[in-house]
Amino acid sequence: MEKKHNIELVLLEIPITYDNIDEFVPALWETHTPKLVIHVGFSELAQCFTLESQAHRKGYKRLDYFDKTPPNFTCPAEGAMRIQTRLNIDHICEEFNNLSAEENVSASKSYDAGRSYGKWLEVTSMENIDRGLHQQKKIPSHVLNP
């Protein structure tokens, strides 16, 4: 796939701690300078591929691996309290659903994925875009648990 589409596919598993995400994600952006980033999380609640349209900076009360929460339950990333993707999620879902109708899988748009570590990662990542360091696009998603 990498040769065919002239891409570098970087697959990483990021530790689920707020501190690790705060350090790891900005370094990844600087190292790879991506044109597209897809964050994939798993949820047993998902009935289809769920594409998140936004991420929030406040409300992170869930304890991480080290039983910590962020100060004031807020991501320190600068910018708006709610950050929205610039991608047309409705169009992406429509195209995906048209192409995969026979395979019994579908995609839907979400406006609120909750306040989990994955969302913290997305806010941190989206903040790198909004700071003007990169003009790339990003899309968070949730995938069905196998």
From TrEMBL:
Gene3D superfamilies reported for this sequence: Peptidase C15, pyroglutamyl peptidase I-like
This protein's record includes keyword rRNA processing: no
A biological process from GO: proteolysis
InterPro entries: Peptidase_C15-like (IPR016125), Peptidase_C15-like_sf (IPR036440)
Keywords on record: Hydrolase, Protease, Thiol protease
One GO molecular-function entry: cysteine-type peptidase activity
PANTHER family cross-referenced by the UniProt entry: PROTEASE FAMILY C15 PYROGLUTAMYL-PEPTIDASE I-RELATED, PYROGLUTAMYL-PEPTIDASE I
Annotated family: Belongs to the peptidase C15 family.
Protein name: Pyroglutamyl-peptidase 1
Biological source species: Eumeta variegata
